[in-house]
Design brief:
Blueprint: H1 3-36, H2 40-59, H3 63-75, H4 81-108, H5 110-117, H6 123-136, H7 139-155, H8 160-180, H9 185-204, H10 218-238, H11 241-252, H12 257-277, H13 280-333, H14 340-352, H15 354-372, H16 377-401, H17 403-429, H18 437-460, H19 466-483, H20 487-501
Helix pairs in contact: 1-8, 1-12, 1-13, 1-20, 2-4, 2-6, 2-7, 2-10, 2-11, 2-12, 3-4, 3-7, 3-13, 4-7, 5-6, 6-9, 7-9, 8-9, 10-16, 11-12, 11-17, 12-13, 12-14, 12-15, 13-14, 13-15, 13-18, 13-19, 14-17, 15-17, 16-17, 18-19
Length: 504
Amino acid sequence: MTQPHRTARNVFLVSAASLAQIVVQFLFQRVLAKTFGAAEASDALFAALVLPTMFAAIVTGSIGYVLIPELVARFKQGEKVAEAWQLASFVGLAMVAASTGFAAWLFWGASGISSWLYQEMDAAQQSLTGDLLKIVSIQVVLLGIISWAQAIYHSRHQFLLPALSGVVGTGVTLFLAYRYGGSGVTTIAWAINGGSVVSGLMHVVPLVSKLGFPQANTEHLWKLIRVFWPLLLGAAFLRVDPLIDRVLADRIGDEGAISHVNFAHRFLTALLAIGTSSLAVVAFPQLAERLTTGGTRGLAEHFSLAFRRLLLLVIPMAIGVGTFSVWIVRDLLEGGLFTEEDSRVVGYLIACFMGLFVGASSGELFARAFFVLGDTKTPTAIGVVSLVLGLCMKVMLFQMLGIWGIALGVSIYFMGSSSCMAVFLARRITGSAFAGSGRIVCQATASSVVACGFCYLIYANNLGSTWVAAPTGAIVYFVCLLMLRNRDARQLLEVIHRRLVGRP
């Protein structure tokens, strides 16, 4: 199988699994919305969850960026396979120790942290937030284990099992929330832990028999540390952004403000699972492999392919979701304690957050290209500078526009950061890395506009909900691309045909 077809196959498989996970996540968010609405209990849950998620991203979120290129190089050489497993075991052990320390700090300091961060909450809500933080503090360890295991799988070009594990884990959380969520919001916190445990076991159990004695060559270890420390410091600075959003929302003083921001942010995170995870994750080990075998020229050629595929995914989702965001939220979340006004606020927030989706999707791929080159300082520096400017812009817009300023500030930051990375990357691996991008933008935009026209007819004439409009729009978009003779769409169609007829 050729490289473009292998990439298309992997993207198709991971996209399908990501889409399934998104559906399950939306159902979970619907359970939360109908059961708790945008009120004090949901505000407390979302305020607590942002902390372990942030610490997990800081401690373990960058492991794959430095570990995957090292493992790819070793797995490609038969005599170094054992060394690869030993290195993976060493990094995993170090990750568990570090994440356990952070989780313990969150657990023992939960009450004080909650009171200090969310000062507009009353005493009862601060206490509830602290109790929930104690429950979900273990997420730092669980998410770390999952990130570490995914790095191993991806370095071996194995993408389906991690993607399916995410679907099953989220499904377990959904089942527990649906079955027992009515007994209180603390049950939801335990349901989230339960889903992460199941996902972690599915990731780790198949690896246990292959792991070696944890050890690492001193020279290679220092190389990893030199690459990793800029990412760690950058992540500590960059990942605080979602926490700042919740704190600003708390400063508004309106019940439900934190929940509104969280629902909108979770929606964008779900979209990123397709825009980023289904392609940037697949492309990363392949970029590392192409650099090893073809040098910078080979890297530029494969990056060009990956970026064109990313544009085909990101552009229609950004245009479609941004256009119909209020209707989408209404169909997916409205009901029970989640009101029509909640749908309106969350829908408009999603539209304002859309720059986050576009910027984060493209920026993730740009950053991984730098990481493959062994350069973690450039994307980190760009991210830090962009965040400082973005935070200033966000605070200014927040004072002027309230909750809408939060979303617009985040969008400006992500778009600015990804644009800067694109400029520096073009200089680093030549402008050919973006060859054909202009044509793809035009084709994808034109096809998206036609697809939105069909979706509007469905929404405006009450011919169906989002569950009808979304697949209709996707089919129309894909047909338009084929009519425009888009070769990437044709390759994806060939992959789908191969899977349906059982050919490899």
